[in-house]
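Tip: read the tokens left to right.
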């Protein structure tokens, strides 16, 4: 499922040169973005980067100051929210406290004058979808946070929208429940087969659920790509640092070939080899980004010839159970983070505070960034 790589696939949503200003503040800055049918698309970015504003424009609650939004080939500029084949689920869920679960889900259908029999059938269908068949007669206050979230989801889907917009849908749930609910949400999205666009500032959540992620920065898109691409091949320091942890070494390009480059980095205290080309020219300032889990930590110099290697001193160790995090200080004071999977038993892990260690990584497990 990669319609964005298929030149014949037609985007379901087209955001074309969209700008949204509030007074002289630019919340969304000349944005272009295509989203395809059945995608689970995430808008990810720090607070204030314009995610919610974009979502509200898709819903029709806000109008672009300039540019246009097309849905299934139709310009939505003059189409009011209630006439769009779109529904929005809010973080607060906004369930009616005095109504039962069934009544909450049926509310929209009742307003549309859907006959009772069909209404009941569709409510039943939704209760099955969100696995709440036994909870139809309860009131919202008799439900857990996760169950309330599912009622809100059922209510958003019962009118069969073509697209569901979700604003921080799992924000109110605790970590464990949120992780579980992410998988439920993916399952439900697959079953109903519609496009989900979700706003989140939780990177792990975006990584877990998304077909693609747009990482936003000050009203602009920094990168749009699959979770793997965003994580493994970020296009800038901003994206690399926003998604997960990363070590960045500044340096100068001292050799450029189509399939590899060499960077001379005072920060790393050595030359760094990267098995990948770059658009930057010889002599340019670039940054090498290496994820902590790509680093090996060892008391002896590694033997792999195609590995980069730097030496440092362990100044902090964080034991996370599944991982151990080593903070290592290099000769010039630069701090590097390595995350090592705890596959061996405790007594087989000899590295400790103040040890001199070798950090090494394969030439194909880093990226060169030009900005
Ligand atoms: P968060 O994660 O905190 O919700 P966000 O990325 O969703 O942030 P938006 O809510 O889209 O950010 O807001 C983007 C910027 O636009 C913010 O600086 C906000 O203050 C501003 N903004 C949003 N709505 C309005 C409005 N109605 N009037 C004036 N400024 C607004």
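Filled-in amino acids:
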């Amino acid at each position: 499922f990669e319609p964005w790589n298929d030149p014949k696939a037609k985007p379901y949503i087209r955001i074309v040169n969209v700008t949204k200003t509030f007074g002289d503040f630019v919340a969304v800055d000349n944005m272009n973005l295509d989203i395809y049918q059945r995608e689970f698309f995430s808008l990810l970015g720090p607070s204030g980067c314009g995610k919610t504003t974009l979502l509200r424009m898709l819903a029709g609650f806000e109008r672009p100051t300039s540019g246009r939004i097309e849905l299934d080939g139709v310009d939505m500029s003059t189409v009011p929210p209630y006439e769009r084949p779109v529904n929005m689920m809010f973080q607060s869920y906004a369930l009616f406290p005095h109504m039962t679960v069934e009544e909450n889900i049926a509310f929209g259908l009742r307003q549309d004058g859907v006959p009772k029999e069909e209404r009941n059938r569709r409510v039943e269908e939704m209760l099955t979808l969100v696995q709440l068949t036994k909870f139809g007669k309860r009131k919202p206050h008799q439900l857990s946070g996760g169950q309330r979230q599912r009622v809100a989801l059922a209510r958003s889907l019962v009118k069969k929208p073509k697209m569901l917009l979700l604003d921080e849908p799992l924000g109110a749930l605790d970590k464990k429940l949120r992780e579980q609910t992410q998988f439920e949400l993916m399952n439900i999205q697959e079953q109903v087969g519609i496009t989900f666009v979700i706003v989140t500032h939780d990177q792990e959540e975006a990584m877990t659920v998304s077909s693609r992620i747009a990482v936003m920065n000050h009203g602009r898109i920094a990168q749009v790509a699959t979770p793997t691409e965003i994580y493994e091949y970020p296009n800038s320091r901003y994206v690399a640092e926003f998604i997960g942890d990363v070590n960045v070494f500044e340096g100068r390009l001292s050799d450029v070939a189509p399939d590899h480059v060499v960077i001379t980095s005072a920060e790393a205290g050595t030359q760094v080899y990267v098995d990948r080309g770059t658009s930057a020219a010889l002599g340019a300032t670039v940054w090498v980004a290496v994820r902590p889990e790509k680093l090996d930590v060892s008391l002896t110099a590694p033997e792999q010839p195609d590995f980069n290697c730097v030496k440092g001193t362990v100044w902090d160790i964080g034991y996370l159970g599944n991982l151990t995090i080593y903070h290592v200080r290099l000769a010039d004071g630069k701090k590097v983070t390595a995350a090592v999977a705890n596959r061996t038993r405790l007594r087989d892990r000899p590295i400790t505070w103040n040890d001199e260690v070798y950090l090494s990584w394969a030439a194909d497990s880093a990226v060169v960034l030009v900005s």
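The first helix runs from residue 51 to 59. Residues 22, 25, 27, 45, 47-53, 201 surround adenosine-5'-triphosphate (CB under 6 Å).
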